[in-house]
Amino acid sequence: MSQPVISLTDVSSYLPGEPISADYYAQFAESDDLRDNLMFRAPRFRHHVGPDESAVDMIERAAQGLIERHGREVIENTDVLITHTQLPDVPFYGAGGGVAHRLGMHPDWVLDLHNGGCAAFILGLNVARKLLASGAGSTALIAVAQNSAGQIFEQPAVRGKSQASVPGDGAAVGLVTLSDQSPIIDVECRTYGQYAGDMSYAADPPRKWWQPGPGAGYIGFTESKIAKVLARGNRQVPEVALAVCHRAGLSASDIGLLVTNQPNRVFLRNWREALELPESRHFDTFDQCGNLFGAGVPINLDRAITEQRVQPGDVVVMAAFAHAGDFAGAAAVRWGGQLR
Asked: Which residues form the Beta-ketoacyl-[acyl-carrier-protein] synthase III C-terminal domain (predicted)?
């Protein structure tokens, strides 16, 4: 019995507020042991979530493009809702329930994913296609919100650090359907549990993230940890991208467009070189948006479609790694064009 065809039919995205330039962070820059590290070369611009803007607000705004193109009833009748929020509005639960209510949905499945990190959209694609293929419904919505730049990295005690000028905020929503519009060729997801503790929260003086105390929390980077993350990321993203291609009988040269997460310019360059792709076939928005964490892949795909960087029939490969390398994923889609 043949498997049903599942498609990534469309994506839509949202960037909050006006662009914030690199000059803004330059005025706060402090002496920092990691200041000259290639990991923290600032983008020209990034966006920050508003002070009263929730993850649910961001996802609702990101979904408007899908509503305009496909109709509100398609969204309201979605069977599966999958969400990922970089910084949950409430520590105890994700945005799934709030998103379902805000968009008028009554899905049979509401799943909040957290372990996917910067590869969360790809993990969501994998979950969605398996659920739809198993008979769980005909439509899924994958919603990703990155909202930590304007909330964590904008704190006065953090924004002087080298890591603060790189992240940006944004949200994106993907529509997955039981159709042959833009078929998902394959998805590869890999968990590297041995690296799960290498991305850490730090505060000065030290405390657990939920404990009160002086000093703001930030990501606990060291030169040693950065070296490990660079090595893992450089290896993992091309590996999962090639695994998807090879299983489908494709080579890297068959990739019409590569879309990845975008921690920094170094990774973007190294991934292109590893896959032997020209810059014209690897789309990013790093200098406009910074490191968008889990929202990077779908936001970049939406921008690439809007700018006509991908044509019907092209193979689009999405690839990303998460945190300090504890998860990586890639998905290949044969793009069928955006329905209007």
From this structure: 245-335
Rounded Cα distance, 232 and 263, in Å: 13
State how many domains the chain has. Answer: 2
Radius of gyration over alpha carbons of the chain, in Å?
Answer: 19
In 3-state terms, what secondary structure has residue 130? Answer: helix
Alpha-carbon torsion 254, 259, 260, 265, what sign?
positive
Can you tell me the mean pLDDT for 210-220?
88
Mean pLDDT across the chain: 94
- Residue 220 confidence class, pLDDT cut points 50, 70, 90: confident
Classify residue 50: in a domain, yes or no.
yes
CATH of the domain at 229: 3.40.47.10
Band (pLDDT 50/70/90 cuts) for residue 121 is very high
What pTM did the predictor assign? Answer: 0.96
* Beta carbons of 143 and 111 less than 8 angstroms apart: no
Nearest to 322 by CA among 187, 171, 198: 198
Domain that holds residue 90: 6-180
Residue 61 has a CB neighbour count (10 Å cut-off) of: 17
One domain, residues 254 and 123: no
Stretch (H or E) spanning 55:
helix 55-62
